[in-house]
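Q: Is it fine to ask for two folds in a single conversation?
A: Yes, each is treated on its own. Send the first.
Q: Here.
A: Result:
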Amino acid sequence: MPKSKHFTYMSANAKLTIWDDKNGTVSNVISNRRGRGHATQVMRHICQYADEHQMSLLLEVQQYAYADSDSPDNAGLTRWYRKFGFVTCEGNRMIRTHKIHVS
């Protein structure tokens, strides 16, 4: 049975659904105040958590239906997710494999 973990930073939040020890899905990445770095911090925390747990992450890029003109379109969201190491794998789906830290 999957587990859910919620991440929040200031006005932004996101959900990580953990399917098994090595795979998770990121969804509902939302920030009520764009341009302040809040969603970026949430994604950094999710990626850090995934790296610490050696998890790969999957997400589907999708602009919210109620998005206003200030919200990024799917192309803008794809570029933003790439900053966190996600790569396009199929259609609007993106994947990020965990980073191995060597000390």
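Q: Second one now.
A: Result:
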Amino acid sequence: MAESARIQVRGKGWTKTTTIDAKKFDVMSKALLASLTAEPLAFGKLVERVTRRLPEFEGSISWYAITCARELEVQGKLVRQEKPVRYMKASTAVSRGTVSKARAAKSAA
């Protein structure tokens, strides 16, 4: 049986990368971005929203969500706030002043 395509996943501060199934990454990334709102969300709330969007998803939604979220953060598409940890779309974070344009541009690079 042919092995499915995999994508390398990075995370800010990670010392090594991991790989996941490219199709699962694509599905999860789209669900994550569609689930984010203008207001920062706690991870548990974000997982609830993703679960409603992907009721047939095979695998641990919380594991794939955090893994994909970290890659989306590196790509500059998602912002992870700290203390308390909350997630939001990068474009929303910049317009709200949650992160500076310089930081968002650096994340996107």
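Q: Anything structural to flag on that second result?
A: Two points. Residues 99-109 have pLDDT under 50 and may be disordered. The helical segments are 22-35, 43-53, 61-75, 90-96, 101-108.
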